[in-house]
């Protein structure tokens, strides 16, 4: 069958899961599939949204794509691509790029980019320092927002000082400031990001033309060995493990420990125990402000909210430290290999002009690349976790007034609905009448939770609609790994050897072992020493787990995806962008991962999965 005869399902062919129609209709109209969407190409954004979306959590897509598109389309003016449109069906987010195909428009945009984007490249360090100051100020502003509260009567000082504003007005002001801060954060997030990908992609394209045989992985290794804040949380866990050994309190950290008991026991121990607890506080602020996921779901709590992730890593690190095993990232080796590769490939160039271009491009890539991971700590993690915790405070207030049963129920409302519930409460407080919300929201919350549960069990197609001739968006190629080759592989699903999966070669190494298929962060506990992690996507905050696993495989991701970068930084064999490894490989299967070739071979499925494999 020719590729032209194949296509992904059309958006119009997707049906809303029976019984969830009202939950689907409650998502904003502008992210529902439209009649003309069949003519476009869409792909499932399982990298950022691997689980069904709660209605409030959709703000993470909305705010992000507002900002991404603004910088692509209107600020930096990328020549071949504009923004990203998003749609949701059955809780799953599909996205589609907006390419620029008219040669005259591409040329006009390229001229603008030369003036705008290159200003950032020329002043990168100064602008990045400014950026950190802006982000820290935004975080401080969010922290200072008052906890929502409605007193029985206004304090007398409201009268005596002539304040002139009652508590119910402060509710809506606080909520709108929270939303404004979150949307502002996403603009800061994309101020540099696509420029970072663009600089790398320009170097990537140069290398592909100059060295036709070079692999994607070889090019990406030329920017390895980076220092970025997103690796700091894991480094702090290692530091705490070393301090536990040095202070002689390491025996308290066992695989089956109860964290509260450990903390209480260390406090009782006195001197060494209290000193370790002081070290813990030093690490927690700010470095434990990272989520166990990628920061896009309200229930991906931070390490500070739930110490399970860092504490789960401590026994393994302690054991290795006591055995004299090096637990650090192989930075010296990465930098040595990187510098040797940069030199070796430079020598293959024939002209001084090509060498000068090569030098300029690799120098720029090295300057800008740490931001590609570093921004995540401040944006997706620290700020986003703070934002969701502030929204929880509104959940608590609404529970106190019987709008629903528990504070987490607030996330079943869209951000528009939450504003309407707050206004309902404002009106009730001001009039002295009971609010209407308690008779409305509990049934809706129950219905939407049932929809989430229903959507969670469904298989999702990796892409929809028309297959594009070419993909020129640097983010879609580098981050998601969506290329014509990867689409052709997805379209060829079912052809060839059913036990071999192909993806991007993220990090060298061949490993055979037991596959541990992780469908959500809630299943991380299943990972045993030596397992091969198979998932839709991972992120840098899972780094403490990398001491346990022997290799990693993901459904989505390109050579510059977070998983690929982290795997290279830790020297962990990995294949990314396989399309559907987490569906084809059964938990407990024996597999072989070849991180150099970008292949995953299913050697043996677990017994109960055999009939399913034969049916396929």
TrEMBL record:
SUPFAM superfamilies: Phosphohistidine domain (SSF52009). It comes from the Bacteria. Residues 527-598 form the PEP-utilising enzyme mobile domain. One of its GO terms (molecular function) is transferase activity, transferring phosphorus-containing groups. Pfam families: PEP-utilizers. InterPro entries: PEP-util_enz_mobile_dom, PEP_Utilizing_Enz, Phosphohistidine_dom_sf. This is PEP-utilizing protein mobile subunit. It comes from Aurantiacibacter rhizosphaerae.
């Amino acid at each position: 069958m020719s590729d032209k005869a194949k296509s992904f399902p059309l958006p119009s062919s997707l049906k809303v899961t029976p019984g969830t129609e009202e939950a689907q209709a409650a998502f904003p109209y502008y992210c529902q599939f439209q009649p003309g969407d069949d003519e476009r190409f869409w792909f499932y954004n399982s990298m950022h949204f691997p689980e069904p979306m709660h209605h409030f959590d959709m703000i993470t897509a909305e705010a992000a794509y507002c900002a991404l598109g603004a910088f692509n389309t209107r600020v930096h003016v990328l020549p071949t691509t504009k923004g990203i449109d998003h749609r949701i069906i059955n809780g799953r987010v599909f996205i589609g790029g907006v390419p620029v195909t008219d040669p005259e428009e591409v040329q006009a945009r390229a001229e603008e980019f030369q003036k705008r984007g290159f200003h950032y490249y020329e002043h990168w360090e100064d602008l990045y320092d400014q950026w950190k100051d802006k982000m820290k100020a935004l975080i401080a502003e969010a922290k200072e927002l008052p906890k929502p509260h409605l007193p029985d009567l206004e304090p007398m000082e409201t009268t005596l000082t002539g304040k002139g504003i009652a508590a119910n007005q402060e509710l809506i002001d606080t909520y709108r400031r929270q939303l404004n801060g979150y949307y502002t954060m996403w603009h800061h997030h994309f101020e540099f990001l696509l420029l970072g990908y663009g600089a790398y992609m320009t170097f990537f394209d140069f290398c592909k033309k100059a060295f036709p045989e070079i692999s994607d992985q070889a090019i990406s290794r030329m920017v390895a060995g980076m220092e970025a804040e997103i690796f700091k949380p894991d480094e702090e866990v290692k530091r705490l493990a070393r301090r536990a050994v040095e202070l002689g309190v390491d025996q308290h950290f066992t695989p089956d420990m109860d964290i509260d008991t450990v903390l209480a026991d260390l406090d009782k121990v006195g001197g060494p125990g209290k000193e370790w607890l002081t070290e813990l506080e030093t690490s927690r602020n700010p470095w434990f402000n990272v989520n166990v996921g990628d920061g896009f779901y309200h229930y991906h709590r931070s390490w500070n909210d739930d110490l399970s992730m860092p504490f789960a890593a401590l026994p393994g690190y302690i054991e290795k430290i006591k055995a004299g095993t090096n637990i650090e990232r192989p930075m010296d080796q990465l930098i040595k290999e990187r510098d040797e590769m940069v030199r070796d490939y430079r020598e293959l160039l024939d002209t001084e002009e090509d060498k000068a271009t090569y030098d300029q491009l690799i120098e720029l890539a090295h300057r800008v690349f740490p931001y590609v991971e570093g921004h995540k700590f401040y944006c997706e993690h620290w700020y986003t976790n703070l934002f969701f915790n502030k929204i929880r405070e509104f959940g608590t207030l609404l529970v106190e007034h019987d709008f629903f049963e528990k504070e987490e129920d607030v996330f079943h409302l869209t951000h528009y609905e939450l504003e309407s519930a707050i206004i309902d409460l404002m009106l009730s407080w001001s009039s002295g009448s009971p609010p209407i919300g308690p008779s409305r929201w509990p049934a809706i919350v129950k219905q939407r939770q049932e929809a989430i549960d229903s959507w969670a069990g469904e298989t999702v197609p990796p892409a929809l609609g028309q297959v594009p001739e070419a993909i020129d968006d640097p983010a879609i190629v580098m981050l998601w790994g969506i290329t014509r080759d990867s689409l052709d592989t997805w379209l060829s699903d079912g052809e060839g050897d059913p036990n071999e999966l192909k993806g991007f070669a993220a990090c060298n190494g061949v490993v055979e072992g037991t596959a541990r298929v992780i469908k959500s962060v809630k299943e991380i506990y299943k990972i045993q020493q030596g397992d091969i992690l198979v998932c839709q996507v991972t992120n840098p905050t899972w780094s403490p787990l990398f001491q346990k696993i022997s290799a990693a495989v993901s459904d989505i991701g390109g050579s510059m995806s977070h998983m690929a970068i982290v795997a290279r930084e830790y020297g962990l064999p990995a294949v990314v962008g396989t399309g559907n490894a987490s569906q084809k490989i059964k938990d407990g299967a024996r597999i072989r991962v070849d991180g150099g070739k970008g292949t995953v071979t299913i050697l043996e499925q677990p017994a109960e999965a055999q009939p399913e494999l034969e049916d396929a």
